[in-house]
Design goal:
Layout (H helix, E strand, L loop, with lengths): L6 E5 L3 H13 L3 E5 L2 H10 L5 E5 L7 H10 L6 E5 L4 H10 L3 E4 L4 H15 L8 E2 L2 E5 L2 E5 L2 E4 L2 H12 L5 E2 H10 L8 H12 L5 E4 L3 E4 L13
Parallel strand pairs: 1-2, 1-3, 3-4, 4-5
Antiparallel strand pairs: 6-7, 7-8, 8-9, 10-12, 11-12
Helix pairs in contact: 2-3, 4-7, 6-8
């Protein structure tokens, strides 16, 4: 007997967007339960604890998405959560992650990216891991967890790996300091006002100073090298 399709809960109050996302998910082979209020989402989640993933809008009527998420986590529900929201401020991302979200996608978004994030999340939860992430001449490795930089193996600590993974996912885009600090905080690393700067400095030493660029007053952006044009730094 074949395995049942993954069951996803979609909590989105916008009728047109919700229908588009539901249709795309069903076309991709998922079973979808769609709710349009926070109270309905909380009830649906509590009555189906074996859900594989919750796709949660924060701006829901009734209970908002954060309240739904916090209530579920307090109740012991550990279903992975991918947040969909128009709230794109750094403080909103930090609040969502701190409340227990596993991923965060800002509206407007491409359905292809949503589907890719869902596949990655479900692979991780199934124990199969994710495909190695790569941008240009920089690639994460899983066994062991580290990186390949222009063909050179790079050993990373757990914190460095988490931080580099976050930057790679948004390569070419400025990542706010608050979002990167939240990544380190969720890993229970040693807190401090300059913790992020210390880890960025370590990554630059292990890779190349040009790979991670500072955007003063905002954050950092990863600009991965082109393997056909760049050479690894001399030792």
């Amino acid at each position: 007997m074949s395995e049942p399709s993954p069951h996803l809960l979609l909590a989105e109050d916008d009728a047109s967007l919700g229908a588009a996302v539901r249709d795309a998910l069903e076309a991709a082979g998922y079973r979808v339960s769609w709710t349009r209020t926070g109270d309905a989402a909380a009830n649906a989640w509590a009555s189906a604890p074996s859900l594989d993933l919750v796709i949660l809008d924060l701006g829901l009527p009734g209970l908002d998405g954060l309240e739904v998420l916090e209530k579920a986590r307090r109740g012991g529900l550990d279903t992975p959560v991918l947040v969909l929201t128009a709230r794109d401020g750094p403080e909103d991302r930090v609040r969502g992650l701190d409340a227990g979200a596993d991923d965060y996608l800002v509206k407007p978004f491409h359905l292809a990216e949503l589907l890719a994030r869902i596949r990655a999340r479900l692979r991780r939860d199934a124990g199969g891991g994710e495909e190695p992430m790569a941008v240009g001449g920089l690639q994460l490795t899983q066994d062991p967890r580290g990186a390949q930089y222009l063909g050179r193996a790079v050993s990373l600590t757990a914190s460095e790996y988490d931080l580099l993974e976050c930057l790679l996912r948004q390569a070419g885009r400025v990542m706010p300091r608050d979002r990167l600090e939240a990544v380190l905080a969720r890993s229970a690393r040693t807190p401090g006002s300059n913790t992020l700067d210390v880890y960025i400095h370590r990554l630059r030493r292990k890779l190349d100073a040009s790979v991670i660029r500072t955007v003063h007053g905002i954050g950092y952006v990863l600009e991965a090298p082109n393997p056909s044009h760049d050479e690894p730094p001399s030792s």
